[in-house]
Amino acid sequence: DDDIFSSAFCENSEKLINVHLFALAAKYYSLSNLGVCTPLEDVLEALKGDSEGATGIKLDEFMNNKKSHEVQVMSELVDGIANYCGIKQVIDIGSGKGYLSSFLSMQYNLKVYGIDSSSSNTNGAHERNRKLKKHWRTYQSRGKEKLKSLSLEKAHDKPVESEINCKTINEELLNNANSLQNQDQVIIQDLLPCGFTEMATLETNTEAEADLVAGTQSHETKLSEEVLAILNVLPADAVEDFSSSHTCVELCEEDKVQRKMTSLQTKARKSSESNLYFPLTSCITAETELNDIITDLEDCMMVGLHTCGDLAANTLRIFTAKPEIKAVCSVGCCYHLLSEQFENQEECHDQVWGFPMCQYLKDKGWCCGRNARMSACLALERVAVGQMLPTESLFYRAVLQVIIEEIYGVTKSDRHVGKTFSKSSSFIDYVRRSLKKLELDDSKLSDSCIMDYYKKYKDRMNELEAFNMLKVVLAPCIEVLILLDRLCYLKEQENIAWSGLVKLFDPVKSPRCYAVIALK
Q1: Which of 143, 175, 183, 389 has a Cα-to-Cα distance from 502 of 20 to 30 A?
Q2: Which CATH superfamily includes the segment(s) 61-136+274-376+476-519?
Q3: What digits encode the pLDDT tens for the residues 118-133?
Q4: Is the pTM higher than 0.90?
Q5: What's the Cα-to-Cα distance from 363 to each of 56, 88, 341, 342, 446, rounded to whole Å?
């Protein structure tokens, strides 16, 4: 009830008087409590049909824990959507270092175009993809040898059984051939009817091949984890037929033709696989014509893993406008960089804004403001498990702001302090480094003057921490507003068959964990 929650603030002063009620209200209006999200399990189940889900994959060797978690979860969903829509082309917007793009192409055999505005990211993605493939080929070779030895052991067991049976049947004849007891294959070939040996050997090898293919998953559990990680990452049919080289008999013409066709298909696939991922450099806006960037654009889907600021909104706009794009899966981030239509009073009719997107909020002239958008980037779940806010660095930055305003008269600047705190040895060092970054003359300030500011506000550090904790509690409510705006925009479109919000990631590992998904 809104009336109950409003009593968290004083009616006259509008100051917060009931922190507990404030926290309850924030939780009530969070996305997890509103019941508007579609569970990931339900989406995967609906997309799956008769196909089996992806095998669990470990990529920690190539990515950090956070990125590995994100790529594995999102790629399975993207593959499910692609299969459901019958498409093989994926456009990864804001692809960055190419982790998701590389994985989608190698694990799921999708043709991926990774588009990023930074040429250094694109070049880095090229080089990283080359090294990744080199690693995978090495591990594939190791895995091949291990699987080969396993298949040889399995194939070796069956001829022994055949030999025992043959020895039983031909016991009398074998008794007369003691000199050949250590040459079992020769004995069998000499004693069995013509052609029987070839049939038995062919059958044994065929069974061994079938068992090898059927039992690959069970064999994998016996391999080392590093080999498993690579074998699982490869397309399902990328592992060559190891047992074919062990066939000792002459194949019939039909088998020869079949083997040759399989070999040609494997070679063709391998030559094409090297071109499944294409990193491209381009700045994407709402007006971007994808045909100008991708010459062989076909029915495809757009994805974005932590698309920054307006890029998340523009991804959805391009999706709705282009008939070739059949689906979208977008996880946004950096809400503080969103452009807002009603934040400034200046009229810019031609500009496309990041917020709001839906007509409902546009009609209300809704505005968040930079402070609220900054708060939306905070990670409540991380704080809840003990990963506290960096209070000291926030305190340094807050006192610096006072110094800049009082000493230099600066209230706004296009320049940024950045990650100066981690490089600073003291508060004095921090202030001087920051002033240089802001191109302000630090000779105006003595060390004692800087320390006077520090001492003046030091006792209010707890106050600052409490204030930031309230911002953290409120963060999910502001994020809800931004995400529901995007969902409502999709609901307003006539060409969308289904759209929803899905919690993809563990929010402790990856705080921006919600995906906006839609199908034409």
Answers
A1: 389
A2: Vaccinia Virus protein VP39 (3.40.50.150)
A3: 766 666 666 656 656 6
A4: no
A5: 46, 39, 12, 11, 53
